[in-house]
Write a structure and sequence with these properties.
Largest sheet: 12 strands, antiparallel, barrel
CATH class: Mainly Beta
Shape: elongated
Radius of gyration: 24 Å
Distance between the termini: 51 Å
Strand content: over 45%
Length: 253
């Protein structure tokens, strides 16, 4: 009878072995240090990463613009401290949107982290600070999805969800479609936000990985304000819809 043919049992697992035979030969202190290093290298290590998803120049109507989306974290397999920042602006108007998040991230499943912390909006003014609850997850077939809800210091509730997928055309050429939706529970006219679905963004970027951690790209991005948000944008004389060509860099270390 092979091992695969053995009946499944329900006996309790054997107790953890506490008798370290090497302690009889070598100093216990030296062996404890060696076991500590081994445990750290096989699952308890602390690592860090900085990832720039978007560092790009946008060919906007009425002048060029720029955008960034950067995330850094440090920690282990289960617990991490995460910092995120993203924003955009134009050559003529300067920075129009800018935010920073500081989050505690906890792995709750093999491919899912739950994150809690704060978000501070530097632009547009007046600035706001939000309590944040969100998630990052890898869905089946390698779809990357993340979302978050934000409750501001003025009691305003907003949320967004975004996702992307990497089509590997070759080992170095990758086509990445990306989408984002924004939501708001109420009107916030001073920052051109209306209740309901606030905006949609669709992007398609083709990058070439010179190295895995260094990949320039070109693409196209479409953004449109929706519903009440579009009404506030029109009221202030801004564009409701923008389609832009982009060129940028995706990098990490």
């Amino acid at each position: 009878m092979t091992a695969a043919q053995q009946p499944v049992g329900n006996a309790p697992a054997p107790s953890v072995i506490r008798d370290n035979a090497a302690d009889r030969v070598f100093a216990v202190r030296d062996m404890e240090r060696a076991r500590s290093i081994l445990a750290k290298e096989h699952g308890a290590s602390r690592i860090s990463k900085v990832m720039a998803n978007f560092l790009e120049w946008q060919d906007r109507a009425g002048g060029g613009g720029y955008r960034w989306d950067v995330e850094g974290w440090t920690g282990g397999d289960l617990n991490r401290f995460v910092v995120k920042t993203e924003g955009e602006g134009s050559r003529s108007e300067g920075t129009e949107l800018a935010e920073v998040q500081a989050l505690y991230s906890r792995a709750v499943a093999r491919y899912t982290d739950v994150q809690v912390g704060i978000r501070h909006d530097l632009e547009p003014g007046p600035s706001r600070t939000h309590a944040t609850v969100g998630f990052e997850s890898m869905f089946p077939y390698w779809f990357e999805v993340e979302g978050a809800a934000f409750l501001s210091n003025k009691g305003e509730l907003r949320a967004r969800i975004e996702g992307s997928y990497d089509f590997r055309l070759t080992q170095r050429w990758i086509l990445q479609p990306q989408a984002e939706l924004g939501f708001s529970a109420e009107d916030i006219p001073e920052i051109e936000i209306g209740s309901g679905v606030t905006h949609v963004e669709l992007g398609l970027r083709l990058r070439y990985e010179i190295r895995r951690e260094f990949a320039p790209y070109v693409g196209i991005s479409f953004e449109r304000s929706l519903g009440r948000t579009a009404d506030f944008v029109r009221r202030d004389g801004d564009r409701v819809e923008n389609t832009t060509l982009v060129i940028g860099l995706r990098t990490w270390f």
